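Researcher: I'd like a structural prediction for the single chain below. Treat it as a standalone chain; there are no partners to consider.
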Amino acid sequence: MKFAPKTFRLIAILLLGLIAFHQTPDTFARKLTLRLTTLAPKDSSFHKMLLRMGQEWKEATDGQVQLIVFAGGIQGGESAMIDRMRINQTQASLISGIGLSEVDPGVAGLQKIPLLFRSVDELNHVMSTLAPRFEQRLSEKGFIVLSWMDSGWVHIFSKSLVETPDDMRKGKMFTQTGDPKQTDMLKKLGFRPIPIESTDILPSLQTGLIDTVPLPPFYALASQAYKPAPYMLELNYVPIVGAIVVSGKAWSRIAPEHQEAMREIAQRIGQEMTEAGRAENAQSVEVMRDKWNLEVREVDDTLLDTWQKVATDAYSYIRDATVPAEIFDEVVAMLEDFRSR
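Model: Treating it as a single chain, here is the predicted structure.
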């Protein structure tokens, strides 16, 4: 059978395409730019750590991997961050457990059950068991977790003093847009949730769209949310959990030896973020109280019992809706076992 010259050219192009698609050492040698998004404020310690991680990645990969960091939510909230990674507009993120739960609902077991965790030791115990499972499930959905971290606790900031659940029911409470189950649960408990993007918290407080918002203190300080919300209830509402994540498509383009080096660097940076985040949370409260007249309401045992009753009432709505039943039950069982030791 004879082929026309044009047919030969077409066959040659197809073969070259197949060769180019096959991952050879030459494929890995091409430079790759990773665009990372995060809600961490620009010039914050987390932002600076990410920049340092990028520089270390560049050095460890002989310049083959470069990182560009978009801080302060300039690429949108966490839902947008996930969407952008899915369509390859960005390839990485420093994202909270709330954002990751949009990819795998099980992750919500770490950050969407109010007042369940009593200490970071309890959180670490649960994460040590569940994190590898979440990593596998997230990987199957195209998201590679390089490092986990936590940053202490979320407290409740408000325009006027909030002490009890009934006080908070009178206000307009921030809830994350794109999470109708969370919004519905809060309504059933008598609260008035207002779904907005986390990047809109400050202007929404300023305009009165919301007047109550659960926030980590370091974020309240960096974003200046404490100015329109100068009261803080020192209730350990939920732990702050996050991860450094890379899209599976981008990760597959990185040579295995470079992947190993990058993961080691990310895990070290994640540990530094954990230590810095916990410390900065406590320091931020002192700064806002001493320099900006933040009024802090401490929580005694009686007040904690009042909040715990409401949280316990919420668990029946959270289980199997916000958090898959098997994960919810497993977390509760692990905590009961840990506390009995």
